[in-house]
Amino acid sequence: MWLISIRDLQFRRRRFSIAVAATALVFAMTLLMAGVSASLHNEPRRITDVIGADSWIVAKGTAGPFTAATVVPADAAAAIAAAPGVETADPLVILHSAMREPVDRDVNVIGYRIGGLGAPPLTAGRRPRAPGEVVADSLLGLELGDGLAAGGQQFEVVGIGDGITYYFGTATIFVPLEDAQAMGFSGKPLATTIVTAGRASSPPQGLDALGPAEVRADLERPLASGTQSIDFISVLLWFTAAGIIGSIIYLSALDRTRDFAVLKATGAPNRALMIGLALQAIVLSVASAALAIVLAQVLAPAFPFSVEIPLRSYVYLFLIAASVGLVASLAGLRRAVGVDPALAFGGA
Length: 348
Known about the structure:
By secondary structure, this protein is α+β, with helices and mostly antiparallel strands. The chain has nine helices and 13 strands.
């Protein structure tokens, strides 16, 4: 029976090739959606790891330093640094701004104390040593020595980082603390948060201490509706793939009505027919999944931000594709089982 099913695939190769191409495109979109979702979850972890703080001191009642507009005095860092359990404490300014030169583009801004916590990672160049210098994410496409204007300030790009994005792939620039204060607070000695190495047993009055996990959870909160929408679209895409495969298997069953009649007339059990249809559906699904991996790699660079497809998604793709194929084969099974063996002899 399996050989008959393979021969049928070869005989109808044009139809099955079109089905494989269409299903592969749907599967590729599910991979890309998984990559987008993974990227959104990875960004908060990466940016908090870049800062490298053990605790984030914010105004009391503040949900987190990335989503709230509350500020604390920058000089509170000295009192926090003197607390038991704290090794160092530095003010940090976190803003959202717009870059005007060389192109108009939204950017995240992180202002840190030179030599303190929050220094950016580098792939080229160096970190800022004085006001007016900036480390820019590679996503902005800038080169060392380029000029950059953001928040009413002029900067020179002295360093390039990679993968320092958050909020749906928005690129981040790192500037000296004084420049960030000028951009966001008209030069006043304020900070969004005080980051520490080591953790204080109790923060000063009027302040709360958040751990990295709490900061990541706060950063992910505004993305919840977006990730839920992506997951919902992924489910719809799986149903679409099942519909494509099911329609092809059903059409194949219609075309093979007399073949099924002959097989049943010669004693083939319904189980054998079911195995044949299931084999066709699984071959179609697995071939589509293999092609989908190639398509996903080709299409991923066209997205406006990083698409990070996790390895487990490739494994899940083949498992779910095989399951989708089995479910879709049910579309033709009822037709095959209901065929009258008399058709093999020209009966009605």
